[in-house]
Amino acid sequence: MLSAVRLKEAKALLNAGLPDGAYYLAGYAVECALKAWIAKSTLRYDFPDKQRATKSYPHNLTQLVLAAKLDSELSVLLNTDSLFRVQFGDQSSSVGVSGGV
Protein backbone atom coordinates (compact mmCIF):
# COMPACT_ATOMS: atom_id res chain seq x y z
CA MET A 1 0.00 0.00 0.00
CA LEU A 2 1.37 3.39 -1.01
CA SER A 3 0.58 5.03 2.32
CA ALA A 4 2.64 2.40 4.19
CA VAL A 5 5.62 3.04 1.89
CA ARG A 6 5.40 6.82 2.42
CA LEU A 7 5.17 6.33 6.19
CA LYS A 8 8.26 4.09 6.16
CA GLU A 9 10.11 6.78 4.19
CA ALA A 10 8.93 9.44 6.66
CA LYS A 11 10.35 7.39 9.54
CA ALA A 12 13.66 7.02 7.70
CA LEU A 13 13.86 10.78 7.17
CA LEU A 14 13.07 11.44 10.81
CA ASN A 15 15.75 8.96 11.90
CA ALA A 16 18.20 10.72 9.57
CA GLY A 17 17.54 14.04 11.31
CA LEU A 18 15.35 15.48 8.56
CA PRO A 19 12.10 16.31 10.37
CA ASP A 20 10.71 18.69 7.72
CA GLY A 21 10.75 16.01 5.03
CA ALA A 22 9.43 13.45 7.51
CA TYR A 23 6.51 15.73 8.42
CA TYR A 24 5.67 16.26 4.75
CA LEU A 25 5.79 12.55 3.88
CA ALA A 26 3.80 11.56 6.97
CA GLY A 27 1.05 13.96 5.89
CA TYR A 28 1.21 12.54 2.39
CA ALA A 29 0.87 9.01 3.84
CA VAL A 30 -2.29 10.04 5.68
CA GLU A 31 -3.65 11.66 2.51
CA CYS A 32 -2.99 8.47 0.52
CA ALA A 33 -4.67 6.34 3.17
CA LEU A 34 -7.77 8.56 3.23
CA LYS A 35 -8.03 8.57 -0.55
CA ALA A 36 -7.68 4.78 -0.61
CA TRP A 37 -10.47 4.54 1.98
CA ILE A 38 -12.70 6.72 -0.21
CA ALA A 39 -11.86 4.75 -3.36
CA LYS A 40 -12.51 1.44 -1.61
CA SER A 41 -16.10 2.53 -0.93
CA THR A 42 -16.84 2.39 -4.66
CA LEU A 43 -17.75 -1.07 -5.84
CA ARG A 44 -16.12 -2.56 -8.91
CA TYR A 45 -17.91 -1.55 -12.14
CA ASP A 46 -19.88 1.16 -10.32
CA PHE A 47 -19.61 4.82 -11.13
CA PRO A 48 -18.47 6.79 -8.07
CA ASP A 49 -20.69 9.49 -6.65
CA LYS A 50 -19.54 12.61 -8.52
CA GLN A 51 -19.83 14.94 -5.53
CA ARG A 52 -17.86 12.60 -3.28
CA ALA A 53 -15.23 12.07 -5.97
CA THR A 54 -14.83 15.84 -6.35
CA LYS A 55 -14.44 16.21 -2.58
CA SER A 56 -11.67 13.62 -2.57
CA TYR A 57 -9.31 15.66 -4.79
CA PRO A 58 -8.04 18.32 -2.36
CA HIS A 59 -4.92 17.97 -0.27
CA ASN A 60 -6.77 19.16 2.84
CA LEU A 61 -6.82 16.33 5.39
CA THR A 62 -9.96 17.56 7.14
CA GLN A 63 -11.91 17.72 3.88
CA LEU A 64 -10.69 14.22 3.05
CA VAL A 65 -11.82 12.96 6.46
CA LEU A 66 -15.27 14.36 5.73
CA ALA A 67 -15.32 12.86 2.22
CA ALA A 68 -14.31 9.50 3.72
CA LYS A 69 -17.21 9.85 6.19
CA LEU A 70 -14.82 9.48 9.11
CA ASP A 71 -15.78 12.74 10.85
CA SER A 72 -17.27 10.98 13.89
CA GLU A 73 -14.00 9.07 14.38
CA LEU A 74 -12.10 12.37 14.05
CA SER A 75 -14.33 13.95 16.69
CA VAL A 76 -13.59 11.10 19.09
CA LEU A 77 -9.84 11.57 18.59
CA LEU A 78 -10.11 15.32 19.07
CA ASN A 79 -12.00 14.80 22.32
CA THR A 80 -9.81 12.05 23.77
CA ASP A 81 -6.25 12.57 22.51
CA SER A 82 -4.68 15.87 23.55
CA LEU A 83 -1.58 15.48 21.37
CA PHE A 84 -3.73 14.72 18.32
CA ARG A 85 -5.92 17.73 19.14
CA VAL A 86 -2.88 20.02 19.31
CA GLN A 87 -1.58 18.78 15.94
CA PHE A 88 -4.88 18.57 14.06
CA GLY A 89 -7.39 20.73 15.91
CA ASP A 90 -6.77 23.98 14.03
CA GLN A 91 -7.54 22.35 10.68
CA SER A 92 -10.69 20.60 11.89
CA SER A 93 -12.38 23.74 13.19
CA SER A 94 -12.17 25.36 9.75
CA VAL A 95 -14.69 22.93 8.27
CA GLY A 96 -16.91 22.33 11.25
CA VAL A 97 -15.60 19.10 12.81
CA SER A 98 -16.08 19.59 16.52
CA GLY A 99 -13.60 18.65 19.17
CA GLY A 100 -13.63 19.73 22.77
CA VAL A 101 -10.65 21.13 24.59
Q: Can you characterise this structure?
A:
This protein is mainly α and 101 residues long. The chain is built from six helices and no strands. The longest helix has 22 residues, at 19-40. The N and C termini lie far apart (34 Å).
Uncertain stretches: none
Average pLDDT score: 84
Shape: globular
What assembly state would you assign to the polypeptide chains in this entry?
Answer: single chain
Structural class: mainly alpha
Task: Provide a count of the helices.
Answer: 6
Strand content: under 5%
Number of β-strand runs: 0
CA-CA gap between termini: 34 Å
The ordered H/E elements are HHHHHH
Helical content stands at over 70%
Which radius of gyration do the C-alpha atoms yield? 15 Å
| Main sheet record | none
Summarize the SSE layout with pairings.
Elements: H1 2-15, H2 19-40, H3 50-55, H4 61-67, H5 71-80, H6 82-93
Helix pairs in contact: 1-2, 2-4, 5-6
